[in-house]
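P.,

For your records, the input lines for the assembly:
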Amino acid sequence: MLLRKKKDEESEIPTASMGDVAFLILIFFLTSTVFTKDKGLKMLLPEKTSDEERVTVVKENIVTIAINPSGEANVKTIGYNEFLSRGDFGRITEIVEERLLERDTLLVVSLRTSKEAPYSSMVEALDQIKIAKVTSEDGRELRANKISLIPTSEE
Amino acid sequence: MRKSIIRKAGRKIEIPMSSTADIAFLLILFFMVTTVFRATTLRLKYTLPQAESTERILMRRNVTYIFVDVDSKVYIDDNLIREDVVAARIAPKVWENPDLITILNVDESVNYGTVDVILDQLKEAKAFRITFATERKT
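Structure tokens returned:
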């Protein structure tokens, strides 16, 4: 009997500061969240191969893009041998797309960059290869997935 | 006339002070989080090349960075290192996390030769998943 609470006394949890607490947590998370700022061109490097393991690719399946020390490109493939100055790298996409339609997944793009060439023109060329995208006759989306990065040196 | 302006003496006016602590904490927190100390920003000078097909890298935990600045100096984990010891630095990280993605933040004017040396080192360290950091072309 003695333990029972008096009926006229009500207990309450104060809720006035709930809003403040909520705002505090909100602001904490708003400011502490870091959005991913990492972005770039993904590549998968090949394993290191010795000379015996080399694979030979048929000429028809290769598009060779050679970049010279001043950052200009020369695109060489069946039916093409074009010199591109730094402004018209967009042509690479067109050529690669055309070859993709013909050669499907067999296509290999070989990006031969001179060691003295600026990195930016190599990235520009790589970008253009990655942009290339065509839909094959049977509705598949084709991209140039096989890209090999080869350094060259002028001697 | 004058009497009506004067407030009644019996009523006390108070500004509520109970939330000042909360406000103060809020401000402290805000400034604590937003402050960036200059010491932590490395004096790296590099401009990333631009590319249209720039993709976002979503797995932040699997990421490690290599920086190459305008003067072709190579940095890993805030340390200036020689370009031929990149493999030695990256190999233990690959051992810990085989899905490691190496992000190459290379200045656009650097010679490709430097990049090639690093790529070769990464192959040696079996860090095959790489990304050339770029800015989205607008």
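Two observations worth noting. Residues 18-32 of chain A form the longest helix (15 residues). Helices of chain A lie at 18-32, 90-103, 119-131.

Regards
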